[in-house]
Amino acid sequence: MQLKGFFSAVATVLRPVLVPRPSVIRRTSDGTYFRFETGSRIGIWKAPDLTGPWVYQGAVLPNGSRINKPGRDDLWAPDVREINGRYVLYYTVSTFGSQNSAIGYATSATMEAGSWADGGTTGVESSTGMAYNAIDAALVQVGSSYLMNFGSFWGDIYQVPMNAAATAIAGTPYQIAYDPAGAHAVEGAFMHYRAGMYYLFFSAGTCCGYNDNKPAPGAEYRILVCASASATGPFVDRQGRSCRNGGGTVVLESHDHVYGPGGQGVFADPKRGTILYYHYANTNIGLADSQYQFGWNVLSWSGGWPSV
Predict the structure, then answer these.
(1) CB neighbour list of residue 116: distance below 8 Å, 6 or more residues apart
(2) In this predicted model, what pLDDT tens digit does every residue of 67-94 receive, in sequence order?
(3) Predicted confidence band at 143 (pLDDT cuts at 50, 70, 90)?
(4) For a disulfide at 57, which of 37, 44, 45, 252, Cβ 3.0-4.6 Å?
(5) Which domain CATH number covers 270?
């Protein structure tokens, strides 16, 4: 297993703080790669190739979100899709450890800085005492329909139908993944379709704060996967364990200088094939959240299950 890519700052402006959950997409019109990252009101980076050089462009929403919740100026967990000829970016408004959360969206024709219009809330919201936390959105298209996967801790991963524009909730959320143990440390779901199967990737463990309070070995972030023939589940891991009862097959975990990989996505790169991308802490650089790196690996599919 070898890390294929890493973050490198080449912009001449002050580099924004890097924290979890990147999103990668390739612009259809010219093949330019875009990477969006948590923090700085969703930072935009561009590159001619997945290997870089990545150059910072600005923020998606430089004035923050119009969603009236705490955290509207510190947006998290971007997920970017091309839908009906335009780009839709989903983002989270919340504060750390809170269920007072909402998933919003912004739209653009080009993804360039200055081109994004805030659409406000998708209607996927949560408050204290609810079964789920409305953060970490990731859309999946099923035929002509759309489903949104979301959630973190509490009841872990939920799914909800979306409208035809994929901008508003169109049903009632239901649970698709859950770890009954401990703090239910599961989040960051991302679904990928391949050869008749839907693969539910997710992050498990402690995501951050490693420099202040490093978790016990094996309790740090890692990337797991479950699969189903249906986008709505039920999902099981490679051993047949239910993803709603602590199941999950390890795809990537700490190794060598790579510590706590997670916040992942899957990207179909026309140059290399199916890519798993993520953030991680490089132990040779530092464990602070502001030092997280961007990494990626080409996925292999031996026996119908992904590995790096």
Answers:
(1) 60, 61, 89, 106, 107, 108
(2) 999 999 999 999 999 999 999 999 999 9
(3) very high
(4) 44
(5) 2.115.10.20
End-to-end CA distance of the chain: 6
pLDDT cut 70: percent of the chain above it: 94
Residue 250 domain-assigned (yes or no): yes
The radius of gyration computed from the CA coordinates of the chain, to the nearest angstrom, equals 18
Whether 4 has a pLDDT exceeding 60, the answer reads no
Name the burial class of residue 122, with classes exposed (0-12), middle (13-18) and buried (19+) by CB atoms within 10 angstroms of its CB.
buried
Is pLDDT of 8 > 80?
Answer: no
Give the residue numbers spanning the domain of 125.
23-304
In a domain, 3, yes or no: no
Question: What is the spatial distance between Cα 41 and Cα 72, in angstroms, rounded to a whole number?
Answer: 9
Q: Are 125 and 103 in contact (CB under 8 A)?
A: yes
What lies within 8 Å, CB to CB, of 141 at 6+ separation is 81
Residue at 70 is within a domain? yes
Residue 287 belongs to some domain of the structure: yes
> Residue 269: beta bridge partners?
273
Q: What is the DSSP string of the chain?
A: ----B------SSPPPPB-S--EEEE-TTT--EEEEESSTTTEEEEESSTT---EEEEESSTT--SS-STTTTS-EEEEEEEETTEEEEEEEE--TT-S-EEEEEEEESS--TT--EEEEEEEEEE-TTSSS-----EEEEETTEEEEEE-BSTT-EEEEEE-TTSSSB-S--EEEE---STT--EEEEEEEEETTEEEEEEEESB-S-TTTSPPPTT-B-EEEEEEESSTT---B-TT--BTTTT--EEEE--BTTEEEEEEEEEEEETTTEEEEEEEEEETTT--STTB-EEEEEE-B-GGG--B-
User: Is the backbone peptide bond immediately before 234 cis, with ω within 30 degrees of 0?
Assistant: yes
